[in-house]
Amino acid sequence: MAAPFANGAPNSKLVFEKSSFDDPKSSHERVLNTKYFTHNASIILPYSSSAAQLQFEISEIQDQQVTYLIRDVPVHQLVDKEFIEAFVKKGQLYILSQRRHIDTHNCAAVFPTGHLLLHITKDTYEQLGLEGKPSVFSSLKPTKYVVDIDLKPDSFTPGRKGYDRVLWCLKDRLGLTFDLLISWNPHDEKICASSVSKFFKSKGLVVSPVPWCVQTQWQNKVRTPVLDSTVVTATEDACGRAEAWEWLGAMACGIDLSESCADNYISTLSCPTPSGSCPRCCVLSVSGFFTPVTTKWLLEKVRNEVESKQEKNKVPWGSVTFHGFQDSPVSVGSREHGFFQEGDNLHSFLTFCNKDYWLYSAYGHHDLCQ
Amino acid sequence: MGKSAKQKGLGNKEAYQRINYLYQAAHLCLQQSPSNPEMCRFYINTMRSVAEKHVIRMHPEIKRSICKKCCMLLLPGITSISRNKKKGERYTVVSCLECGSVKRFPWGKNYQLWVEKPAAWQPS
Amino acid sequence: MADDKSCTEETLYSGLSPSIVSHGSKLGLQARSMRQTDVVKSYLKRHLPANRLMANEDNISRRQVHLSRTVKKKKFDLTSQKKKKLTNRERKGMKVFKIPKENQSYSQQLPLHQAWKQYMEEVIPSSSVSSPGAVQAACQKVVKAELQGGMLTVQRSKCPSYVGVCGIVMQETRHTFTFITSSDKVKCVPKENSIFALELHGHIFTIHGSHFKVKAGERSSKKFKSKPTTDL
């Protein structure tokens, strides 16, 4: 017999925002700029005829946005003065540790703001010797600590007490190593983004590029909800935000929402009413290590699809969902992220042809949201 | 040092070694930095508490070279003043320069320290 | 002061006979000197009031002897001799056990550390730590041994700034260890919530400070019970 959870379902949070891309106070730029590490982008385009073109463009841009996986990088390498001068202070560097669970292992990340963040276990923290704070989600006896090192100041140079202590702790005290996902946007167009991989290869480390995994699913004769950007709660004329959210999730999971399957054992979900018939719906899923450059590009493409079509081929709305890493130490900006029973942190843009959008921000239990 | 410990057994051997080491350490430390008598005092204090806990009898030579009040090593001319006086009988006065406490040792012709008596060396 | 006239300024006691001095190196004799001038000078510096120090009266190279002055004999005061031990308040007032944090030198403590190594060699001979059973016995001895003069390192600590502190132990109190590091810094580290590491004969002994909070002298007779957890 199944035992019930003591506190019921996991306490997740969903934040809804309705705005327009033309609004100067729109937060879409801020959200995408500060969502440093994105794992997956799911694009749902009903009524779209040129989604195949989109797929082609995505495979083209993959060559430009190169991300690397480097195995067994010692952390003191990230504090190396040469590395800081070349990659941290110039351009934008995004680094995240891979194959480490945020709730049980040590994790590391570097942000474009020039901060090195170490999310470490209690044992590691007690042996390492660097000052840090207990995790925001810890109880009376913290099990995880966060060490934040600012790499950008000029005072962080060899010969100074602070730098020497950090280097000694990371190198001689505990030789921590991680598998890192790295992406670097150079500040100058003449410099190639792959110079970061050359740097690590010169240190004798194994560098491999991270390929994108693109999956496309076409569904014919799908029933799609009728949505109006001004109508947020469900009425007779249009579905509300909650119904749209459920439908998007069901489509992304590949659940069959047709009428005949309403009594299905797996799912009893059906398309919310009022709904319209769509001849062809494209569900595109791209997985990899994405930085804000890529996510902004993807949003632009989806907006193009939705906003630029003429009356005949009108696409009323489309959506793109950006899933963050479950094991990332931050969700958005410097807000701490953890894994409790789930580790979701995702942002979903539902864009309309009149340049309005609905933004859903979903967070898990161990997440901070405004 | 309590030489009668030879009959005691190995249980206390570590305690004797510790006391021995602390005494030497106090000497070394005073030699190294004569301007810091605190270290020397601290070691002698530790030595005394170890001896108290294990109820160890120390050789009178060692006891006489330590000031009872402030636990300072008494080195004549350096940290203490030693004078011979007479008042009825002759005695030696050792005064500690740090705390000012005074010890008097009368000169008894027939006086023997316990360790110098043959009875002390007999197995009990 | 009849005694002073017979001494030279250099030495208080007469030296060894020349034959021993010449063969000193063969006998393994090390020259040790505790110069009277050093000790007396430092004593004067500590105890003279400030105005007399300014008048340069601690300079003992010029000594004036007044022959015409008669010195009054002090009466022998019985009452002042009654107290034999210092009370805690007097002790704190005199600061008998406080080590000044400045002007300490690591190199001055090295001879002490050498003496400590010899002492540990006697307590735990290096030949005896070969088997695991012998190592256990050695652990028991370390618990009762003297740590002052030894080299300890803070291996783990709840407070990260103490981690990595390594030096010669100058003082051990009930709750703290006072180290002097190789950069001549005096660091006082609390025993609570720290784990210390001691290296001896190729083995590293770990001391859990939280369970070690006993005065140095009392530690040799204390029986330590096993604790449920060694977590900090």
UniProtKB/TrEMBL annotation, chain A:
Coiled coil segments of this chain: none
A single GO molecular function term of this UniProt record: ribonuclease MRP activity
Gene Ontology cellular-component terms listed: multimeric ribonuclease P complex; ribonuclease MRP complex
One BP annotation, GO: tRNA 5'-leader removal
Protein name (record): Uncharacterized protein
Organism of provenance: Littorina saxatilis
Automatic annotation (TrEMBL), chain B:
Keyword check for rRNA processing: no
The entry's keywords: Cytoplasm, Endonuclease, Hydrolase, Metal-binding, Nuclease, tRNA processing, Zinc
GO cellular component term, pick one: nucleolar ribonuclease P complex
InterPro entries on file: RNP4 (IPR016432), Rpr2/Snm1/Rpp21 (IPR007175)
Secretion signal, residue range per the UniProt entry: none
GO biological process, any: tRNA 5'-leader removal
GO molecular function list: endonuclease activity; hydrolase activity; metal ion binding
Family, per entry: Belongs to the eukaryotic/archaeal RNase P protein component 4 family.
PANTHER family for the chain: RIBONUCLEASE P PROTEIN SUBUNIT P21, RIBONUCLEASE P SUBUNIT P21
HAMAP family (UniProt xref): RNase_P_4 (MF_00757)
Protein name per UniProt: Uncharacterized protein
Gene source species: Littorina saxatilis
Taxonomy of the source species: Eukaryota, Metazoa, Spiralia, Lophotrochozoa, Mollusca
TrEMBL record, chain C:
Entry keywords, A to Z: Nucleus, tRNA processing
GO terms for MF: ribonuclease P RNA binding
SMART domains named among the record's database cross-references: POP4
GO cellular component: nucleolus; ribonuclease MRP complex; ribonuclease P complex
Cell compartment(s), UniProt: Nucleus, Nucleolus
Gene3D superfamilies: Ribonuclease P/MRP, subunit p29
GO biological process terms, semicolon-separated: rRNA processing; tRNA 5'-leader removal
Family: Belongs to the eukaryotic/archaeal RNase P protein component 1 family.
Protein name: Ribonuclease P protein subunit p29
Species annotation: Littorina saxatilis
Classification lineage: Eukaryota, Metazoa, Spiralia, Lophotrochozoa, Mollusca
